[in-house]
Design a protein that fits this description.
single chain, about 190 residues, alpha+beta, four-stranded mixed beta sheet, four-stranded antiparallel beta sheet, 3 helices, about 20% helix, about 35% strand
Length: about 190
């Protein structure tokens, strides 16, 4: 009886330790959103759409499309309408041809002004399952580009999962991007 209780307590403590382990970035830079006002920081609400100044577009169709076609998580086999293949992937999309090359679904694609915007679609592996993606923060620091995905929840489960993300940003050319998962406990 004591051995079973000791074993159970050990497993619970081990799992609690795994749950509180923070995710690290792909490099040694601090992935938190910069505080220095001289650094480029682009964000708005959930950070998924950064309107070009003067653009009065309504982006509801874009949100509806991605809410339907790109679920937040991928479990096991690819379950989205995009070529993500359960690997850490990031696509810079600057035309409808680029979008058609990775979209496998049957829904009508939303209207996007690719003369003014770049669409970024990808997925990132995490060792925890979170409840909510609260916001995204896209920024440049020291010549590198970062996308921080801020997750929260009062329940965090230790399990490997791919998180899908997307964002519409002012026009840019393809570049390397460091995608980081930041955990905010409730």
């Amino acid at each position: 009886m004591k051995k079973n209780l000791l074993f159970t307590m050990s497993v619970v403590l081990l799992m609690a330790g795994m749950v509180t382990t923070a995710c690290s970035s792909d490099d040694n830079d601090d992935p938190k959103t910069p505080e220095d006002p001289t650094e480029t920081v682009i964000s708005r609400n959930d950070g998924k759409i950064i309107p070009v100044p003067g653009d009065k577009s309504n982006f509801d169709d874009l949100y509806d499309f991605f809410n339907k076609e790109l679920p937040l998580t991928s479990w096991g086999e690819n379950n989205s309408a995009f070529h993500l293949d359960n690997s850490e992937t990031c696509y810079f999309i600057n035309s409808y041809d680029d979008l058609k090359a990775i979209y496998t679904g049957k829904e009508q694609m939303p209207s996007i002004d690719f003369k003014s915007y770049t669409l970024i679609i990808g997925q990132k592996l995490s060792n925890n399952v979170y409840q909510n993606l609260d916001k995204q923060s896209f920024y440049e620091r020291d010549g590198k580009t970062y996308l921080d995905l801020f997750f929260s929840g009062d329940i965090v489960l230790p399990m490997f999962v791919y998180y899908n993300y997307w964002g519409l940003y002012p026009k840019m050319s393809k570049r390397d991007i460091n995608v980081n998962i930041i955990e905010n406990r409730i």
